[in-house]
Amino acid sequence: MTQDDFDLSAPELSEDDLLVVDDPHFDRDSVALVTGAASGIGRATAVALARNGLTVVGADVDQEGLDDTGAKAEELDAPGRFVGVETDLTDDEDVAAVIEAAAEEGALRYVANVAGMQHIASIPEFPMDRYDLLLDLMLRAPFLVSKLAMPHIRENGDGVGAIANMSSVHGHYATKDKSAYITAKHGIHGLTKAIAAEGEGSLRGFSVSVGYVLTPLMVNQIEDTAEERGLSERQVIENVMLGQARTKEMMTPAQVANLFTFGFSGHGQHLNGADMLWDGGYTTTYE
Q1: Burial 175-214 (b: 16+ CB within 10 A, else e)
Q2: Radius of gyration for the alpha carbons in the chain, expressed in angstroms and rounded
Q3: Distance (Å, rounded) from C-alpha 248 to C-alpha 261?
Q4: Arithmetic mean of pLDDT, 121-128
């Protein structure tokens, strides 16, 4: 295996990549809020849900990226609509505003808390300002989004809806130099279970855990990990990222987005408080 075997750029979305399912709530009258919608998994999830006919409100600090997400949805002839709302998820007023914006577009039923970041450092060297920012974005913000969205979902006639949280294999185990990320992902599992406990069955909570996904964030992480550990980028990919996996291939953003689509649909009726673990064998096998 050589470095040339890996394309270190996020793949372009196509119609054939995205799962489309029949569901009575997958129409323009139903709204899905997707955070981190300007790139990567968030963009793919927003486009996938628009392809399934939903009205999608995308939240991100990157307005230009949100515009590109909307353009991609149009390019793929998505029957649903995409509305981008520039949002700082670490600002409570911004979070409240995007929830209200989503509710104004129709019946808010679905939330995908996808936005994330990464910082690579050992615990003794971890800067607290980065720790605080990461936890604010990846744990506090999903809690606040859920807190504000749940009343709107309950106001719908049947109360049917779901809040899905982006987790990771790092929500199941720990590796070195990612302590803040690991803390956030373990916490997101607790939030997911709490949503399910209070959802009364019709309002579900679930999380999605995957291994390494070829996103712009991942490309940066490969570079950061290589520098932190004194390895080549090839060694990071082969030994650190894919070394423990049985499926020797990174997931694509579209493959992750399809898990959100399935989980939100009626096919996911019994997915409640649980985690969808699609990790290529990372956490279930070992040498």
Answers
A1: eebbbbbbbbbbbbbebbbebbeebeeebbbbbbbbbbbb
A2: 18
A3: 25
A4: 98
Q: Is the pTM of this model over 0.85?
A: yes
Residues with catalytic function: 181
Q: How many CA atoms lie within 13 A of 29 on its CB side?
A: 5
Pairwise pLDDT comparison (186 vs 219), residue with the higher score: 186
Token readout for 145 is 């989004």
Joined together, the tokens standing for residue 159 give: 């109360």
Per the model's pLDDT, the better-predicted residue between 245 and 115 turns out to be 115
Res 186 pLDDT > 50? yes
| Contacts of 31 by beta carbon, 8 Å cutoff, 6+ apart | 54, 55, 56, 57, 102, 103, 105, 106, 107, 108, 109, 110
The residue behind tokens 């709204």 is: 31
* CA distances (Å), origin 39, targets 126, 180, 258: 26, 22, 16
- pLDDT exceeds 60 at position 4: no
C-alpha span between 255 and 268 (Å, rounded):
16
Q: What is the mean pLDDT of the chain?
A: 93
Q: Is 117 exposed, middle or buried (CB count within 10 Å of its CB: 0-12, 13-18, 19+)? A: middle
Q: Which amino acid is at 32?
A: A
Rounded to the nearest 5°, which phi and psi values hold at 240? -85, -50
**∠ at Cα 41 (255, 55), nearest 5°?**
95
Element (H, E) at 164: strand 161-166
CA end-to-end span of the chain, whole Å?
19
Cα–Cα dist 65/272, whole Å: 32
17-215+251-276: CATH topology is Rossmann fold (3.40.50)
